[in-house]
Design goal:
Asn/Gln_tRNA_amidoTrase-B-like; GatB/YqeY domain-containing protein; GatB_Yqey_C_2; globular; YqeY/Aim41; 2 domains
């Protein structure tokens, strides 16, 4: 079953169970996927859909930080609930040890020795960690490793 079919099934289940918050989040995700498909004039595969989900989670995390800074915990709670629903569609997250091992492997594969090689290392890592780890955090770890 493709991720898109899973989303449609989950949307129907949320409708039948009258879970308004969950249904709203899934509808937002489906709308974003549809918008991407219209923009690119192609049907998105599972990897592209994972990229959309990852982007939406990141947007919500940024919003939570801004809402908490503004003292709007009620809005931050709504965003947190949306993140919980979105994360159900992401693959199992990598552990810190797995990320460190992937970084070491990528550094060894590319022969990276300095900060100038960071692009090569991230080019190898990004497909392996997409949707399974925060790319920004991994980038910071690669930067620390190469420095």
């Amino acid at each position: 079953m493709s991720l898109k079919d899973l989303l449609k099934d989950q949307q129907k289940a949320a409708m039948l169970a009258k879970q308004k918050a969950r249904l709203g989040t899934i509808r937002l995700l489906m709308a974003e996927i549809k918008q991407r498909e219209v923009d690119t004039r192609t049907e998105l595969g599972d990897e592209e859909i994972l990229a959309v989900v990852t982007k939406m989670v990141k947007q919500r995390r940024d919003s939570i930080a801004q809402f908490e800074a503004a003292g709007r915990q009620d809005l931050a709670d709504v965003e947190s609930a949306e993140i919980a629903v979105l994360q159900e569609f992401l693959p199992q997250q990598l552990t810190a040890e797995e990320i460190a091992a992937l970084i070491e492997q990528a550094v060894a594969d590319t022969g990276a020795a300095a900060m100038a090689d960071m692009g090569k290392v991230m080019g190898v890592l990004k497909p392996k960690i997409q949707g399974r780890a925060d790319v920004g955090a991994v980038s910071a770890q690669v930067k620390a490793r190469l420095a």
